[in-house]
Structure formats: structure tokens, C-alpha cells
Amino acid sequence: MTDREQRTEEFIELRPLLFSIAYRILGSAAEAEDVVQEAWLRYASADAVVEAPRAFLTTVVTRLAVDVLRSARARREQYVGQWLPEPILTDDPDGPEARAELTESISMASLLLLERLTPLERAVFVLREVFDVDYAEIAEAVERSEDACRQLASRARRHMARQRPRFDADQHDRQALTERFMAAFREGDVEGLRRLLAAEVTMVGDGGGKAPSLPRPVAGREKVASLLASVGPPMVSIGVTLQLREVNGAPGLITRAEEGTIVNVVVIEVVDGHIQTIRSISNPDKLRHLGAVSDIWRLKDEFQKARRAAREESDTST
User: Fold this and answer.
1) Residues 10 and 39 sit within 8 Å (Cβ to Cβ)
2) Could you state, in order of their start, the residue ranges of all structural domains in the chain?
3) How many of the other CB atoms lie within 10 Å of CB of 155?
4) Of the ranges 2-11, 96-105, 225-234, which one carries the lowest mean pLDDT score?
5) If you count Cβ atoms within 10 Å of the first and of the last residue's Cβ in the chain, which end, N or C, has fewer?
6) Where is the RNA polymerase sigma factor 70 region 4 type domain (predicted)?
7) Region 127-138 average pLDDT
8) Domain spanning 3-162 has what CATH number?
């Protein structure tokens, strides 16, 4: 086996781990893929013998991800509307995120908490708390002393612990509740939706200025139920379908247009048997890694026509 072939095999084996690290540091699947690809180019072209491929690649990915995150911070401060992480599908039992502890660390709520850390705190926390990397290797990756890394990890751990999200653990119960939610949404069943939503439920949308979305979060059972009930039937009438998937370790929905393209991805967080948070990502830039994306502006026009027709029919019948 040539050196190139050996490095290729080693990289393929480590690639899921490298992506998992980069995605948690960045909250962006597309940026994580770019970082992992750049790490491969550096590994493949390294002149020296690499004695420890895992440590070498982890170091390269971490440094690249921290650099990307620093530049991304400025872009996110100017982002149009609510910024949410890019969704990834986690319902593959053989996938890199299948273990329960990894799934929790990749939840939307956890990734949003990580956004509040500095890039170095985030990198150190991910390496130590999620992947149990030893401090000597972390110090090499972030170019800080071991003592400095311990301090960074301690600060990050305290911050995460203070606001650690709480979710219902039983996957079967969460899925059953999400299926009832889908049915009530399709039918525009306000009362059915009310029964499923927590009193303080919040619904958040991320269109990034590139797709229709909620201009601001909607809070409270009555407001969210009414909004969802008014949206569901018109969407169904224009051929939109809902596909139940696990997204970032939580129940989720992929909304597809009649031709099968992706309209948006919805992530649902369940606490104490009720839906606590609904996050909808429609920014096409955050969905392309999952497949072909719909022309959502065309769909919006069709949706509005269907909604007007439904209102006119309701007015006529009354």
C-alpha cells in the first residue's frame, strides 16, 4: 500500500469524527464540510511522516474551525432575523452522532448555547466535554498551555451548566407526540394543537432574508396554535408534504414541495410531554446539504392564493 493510499484510508475512517468536531464548533454543516476537506488536503500533502493521524487531523480541523468561527461571528451579527444552526439528520443508527451523549451535544439548544462562548472556549469545550480529548492534545490543537485550556474548559462548563436545556428523553413518546402534531397541523386543528403545546411554547424562524420566515419569535400557546392552524391546510392544498425525521437529535420534520424539493426543516423540542420550542429553518443556504431546495417565493405566492381561497370559502359558507 502506498503512503497516499494509507492516508486516504485513515482519513475516511476519521472523517465522521472530524465532521462532528467541526460542526459543533461552527454550527454550520457547509462550513464544517469545507474545514474537513481542507484538513484532508493538508494531510495528503504533508511531507513529514504523520505518526498519529487522529491527533494530527483533530488539531488541523480544530484550528481551521476556530479561524472560520472568528470570521463568521461578524457575519452572524449582521444576519437578517434569527440565526439558527444548520440542521443535520441524526436518525441513522450507524451514523457518527448515534450515541446518546453525542446526540444531546448536537441539539439546536446546545448549539445555540455554544454560540455564546468565545471561539476558543467553544473549541476546548467540544474537544474535552463531548469527545474526551486529553488536555495535552487540546493544548496542541488550540495553541495554548494545558492550564489555560483547563481554565477555558471550566468557564465554558459553568456557562453551559447554568443554562443546560432539558428535554424529554423517551424517543418513542417524542415521536408519537410529533406525529399527533403533524396531523393537527395538516388539519388546521387549533384545539388539537393547543393540547400538544406547552403554555410558554416559542416558535422561531430562520429565513436569513433569503426566504419567507417569521420576522420575530411567536410565544404562547394560543398565538402559536392559531398561527400553525392557519398555515397547515393551505400548505397541504398546494401539495406540500411533511416527512418525520430526527433532526439534531430531536423530532423534526422536512417539509417538501409537490416535486419533492425541500421547503424548510422544523425541529421540535419536547419537555414534560408538551412541545416547548419549534424552530423552522427555511434559509436555502442552510438546507442545500440535505438536497434540492424549493423555489420558496413561488410557493409563497401559491400558498397565499390558497389561503385567500380558503377564507373566501369560509366566508361564503357562513
Assistant:
1) no
2) 3-162, 171-317
3) 16
4) 96-105
5) C
6) 112-160
7) 96
8) 1.20.140.160
Torsion angle of the four alpha carbons 307, 312, 316, 318, in this order, in degrees rounded to the nearest 10: 50
User: DSSP characters for 230-298?
Assistant: HHHHHHHHTT-EEEEEEETTEEEEEEE-TTS-EEEEEEEEEETTEEEEEEEE--GGGTGGGS-B--HHH
* Annotation: CATH topology of 171-317: Nuclear Transport Factor 2; Chain: A, (3.10.450)
> Which has more confidence, 224 or 311?
224
What per-residue confidence (pLDDT) applies to 169?
66
In this prediction, residue 186 carries a pLDDT of 96
Count of Cβ atoms closer than 10 Å to residue 34 Cβ: 16
List Cα–Cα distances, 225 to 51, 234, 235, 270, in angstroms: 57, 15, 16, 16
Does 171-317 match 3-162 at the fold level? no
Is residue 142's pLDDT more than 90? yes
Q: Kindly provide the residue ranges of all beta strands, DSSP E only, lying in the chain, ordered along the sequence.
A: 197-206, 218-219, 241-247, 250-256, 262-271, 274-281
Residues 119, 125: contact at Cβ < 8 Å? no
Paired residues of 219 in beta bridges: 202
Rg from Cα positions in the chain: 22
Cα 271 to chain centroid, rounded: 18
What is the model's pLDDT at position 102? 66
- pTM, 2 dp: 0.90
The reported pLDDT for the residue numbered 10 is: 93
Contact 32, 26 (CB under 8 A): yes
